Amino acid sequence: MYTALMSTSERLIESTRELLWERGYVGTSPKAILERAGAGQGSMYHHFKGKPDLALTAIRRTAEELRAAAERALGGPGTPYERIVAYLRRERAVLRGCPIGRLTMDPDVMANDELRAPVDETLTWIRDRIAGIVEEGKAQGQFAPELDGGEIGAAVLATVQGGYVLARAAGSPAAFDTAVSGLLTLLAPRTA
Amino acid sequence: MYTALMSTSERLIESTRELLWERGYVGTSPKAILERAGAGQGSMYHHFKGKPDLALTAIRRTAEELRAAAERALGGPGTPYERIVAYLRRERAVLRGCPIGRLTMDPDVMANDELRAPVDETLTWIRDRIAGIVEEGKAQGQFAPELDGGEIGAAVLATVQGGYVLARAAGSPAAFDTAVSGLLTLLAPRTA
């Protein structure tokens, strides 16, 4: 969130982040950004080259935060399985959806390699982080040797991203939790 | 796809379906619909009450098609596991994403209960259909008794929806297949 004490460029970035999360890139007009930021007409072009440049700054910041939030769970204490549980069960604004994942539904973001790059990099980073944890769990005998870290990492991340879709469709966060519970039952260490 | 032989109202519905899939509701203007349909200015209000009414007709038709495509795989031959494999591996335009799931990222669809209803009903129907197949598999001893049909159904559907997100982010359908492979390894009958 932003306050009146922030600089104009900060207010522009933070309003863009909020609007991208709520309405996506296609649904976010420069006018709406300026209004929410309480900034004057010329200010966007004073601080940024235009909407794509401002959006790129906003997306990069959101991507960094998402990665940090994932790392707090995935890099926390516990067994490999417990760390994946912590990631899947971490507090989320489920009905708002993923501020990074939702951008993949935005045709103008997907058509722009520069805007797509932080989206792809962030999701790839999380998937690979989970993949490494699965490999740790295999080495410790917690997970079956036939599991492929990369595949399980992708399935875990897909369940999160798809869980948002189910929850938003249902208008209830419970649908997210149900999908996560299903995946965790399947992933549960066989010796438990 | 539509042809010049179609009636104006059909052309309006089919163009709206395409545009909703490509650009979402927020990104689809009445002007763009009319242009793609090759229809005159007043024709939308002649055949429909407005954009929401036309979109509802379009979404309902897309929902019916999606349900039928899911049923072709889920109601096909084979064991419960094989039918879930058939559903997950069925031919998809992965990089286009799910024409129903993507609507959940659309704030104007989510804010309108009438537009959201066919989205929720379709996803719930597919989830419940998979849940029933998981219960069949449990009864046949193919799946472990601790699996909950509803949870596994949600996890399977979430993997599909999230798989689209990962594939679009990466700009490659392979990311979808990787997530699906991970889930299928986890779900594979233990006696296999």
UniProtKB/TrEMBL annotation, chains A, B:
<keyword id="KW-0238">DNA-binding</keyword>
<dbReference type="GO" id="GO:0003677">
    <property type="term" value="F:DNA binding"/>
</dbReference>
<dbReference type="InterPro" id="IPR011075">
    <property type="entry name" value="TetR_C"/>
</dbReference>
<protein>
    <submittedName>
        <fullName>TetR/AcrR family transcriptional regulator</fullName>
    </submittedName>
</protein>
<keyword id="KW-0804">Transcription</keyword>
<dbReference type="InterPro" id="IPR001647">
    <property type="entry name" value="HTH_TetR"/>
</dbReference>
<dbReference type="Pfam" id="PF16925">
    <property type="entry name" value="TetR_C_13"/>
</dbReference>
<dbReference type="Pfam" id="PF00440">
    <property type="entry name" value="TetR_N"/>
</dbReference>
<feature type="domain" description="HTH tetR-type">
    <location>
        <begin position="6"/>
        <end position="66"/>
    </location>
</feature>
<dbReference type="InterPro" id="IPR009057">
    <property type="entry name" value="Homeodomain-like_sf"/>
</dbReference>
<dbReference type="InterPro" id="IPR036271">
    <property type="entry name" value="Tet_transcr_reg_TetR-rel_C_sf"/>
</dbReference>
<keyword id="KW-0805">Transcription regulation</keyword>
<feature type="DNA-binding region" description="H-T-H motif">
    <location>
        <begin position="29"/>
        <end position="48"/>
    </location>
</feature>
